[in-house]
Amino acid sequence: MKFWDRILQTEQSIRKRVENAFGKETTRTPLEVRREVLEQVESRIVIDKGGKLFLFSKIEIHIHPPTESQRDVFELAFLKDSSLELDIRQKLREWEIQQPGNPEIIVQVHEPADPRQAEVLPADLLQLNFVKIDRSRPRETPETSLQIIKGSVEQELYRMRKERILIGRLSEVTDQEGRMVRKNDVVFLDNGDDINSTVGRIHARIWFDSERKEFRIMDEASRYGTRIVREGRSIEVPGGNPRGIRLKSRDEIYFGQACMQFVISLE
Question: Are 9 and 30 in contact (CB under 8 A)?
């Protein structure tokens, strides 16, 4: 199935919700917004003698729907299973980007603004921010240790020094056509185990905020959710919120029923 045929099929599956929220004559349906996002990403590709380059470390996509019903449709179309993020990554692969080709992608569907407060109304439904790669600043990502407490995994202890750590079930996640869309760093086995079954294939991500000098965690709209247990207190990680929540060393993190302890190594 061709890329846009699959996207159109996705929108047709929620067609009635789209018509109820937007009206039949609208030109800014999720399909059109998705197409605009991909066109803007493609327009920032540059070509030199080494091939195609995408010189951005982060893509921030902000959707500002005017109504709650439109917000619900955009969340279903863009956030469910990280669909918009995976579409962008698939297109970057199809465009044969040489480097780096793996930017951080943040998609956020905002609450509708109060129409009585004209000064806070967004100028447009769609806002994109492209953050360039900073080649002058050295990376100072601390090493982390991830000790698995509950769940079947490829290894019981992960040690890594990475700016972004992806957590999920299966080491490689593929789409319906067998193309890889994600490689998880912390891998829970897809073995039918009751605990592991509560871990989504695309469940959560941890990243290092170099400006704040802290690690944060985001739940990627997983079915069974993510929470932190810190000093006996449970903290829910909001699903699909790109800001995430700050992590502290020795936090226990639950992905559904699976659990690991997060430790920042002291050097």
Answer: no
- What DSSP string describes 140-176? -PPPEEEEEEES-BS-SEEEE--SEEEEEESSEEE-T
Phi first, then psi: give them for residue 106, nearest 5 degrees: -115, 125
Where are the alpha helices (H) located in the chain, listed in sequence order? 3-13, 15-22, 30-43, 68-74, 83-94
Give residue-wise pLDDT tens across range 115-172.
655 454 455 889 999 988 766 555 578 999 999 999 999 889 999 988 899 999 999 8
Last residue of a domain, one of 80, 98, 132: 132
Quote the percentage of the chain above a pLDDT of 90: 40
Cβ atoms of residues 219 and 239 within 8 Å: yes
Judgement on whether residues 84 and 153 belong to the same structural domain of the protein: no
Domain ranges, residue 117:
3-132
Domain boundary among 85, 101, 132: 132
Any residues with CB less than 8 A from the CB of 248 and at least 6 apart, and which? 230
Kindly tell me the sign of the dihedral angle through the C-alpha atoms of 179, 182, 183, 186. Answer: negative
CA distance 201 to 220: 10
- Whether residue 137 is contained in a domain is answered as no
68 in any annotated domain: yes
Give the whole-angstrom CA distance, residue 219 versus residue 231: 21
- Is residue 139 a part of any domain in this protein? no
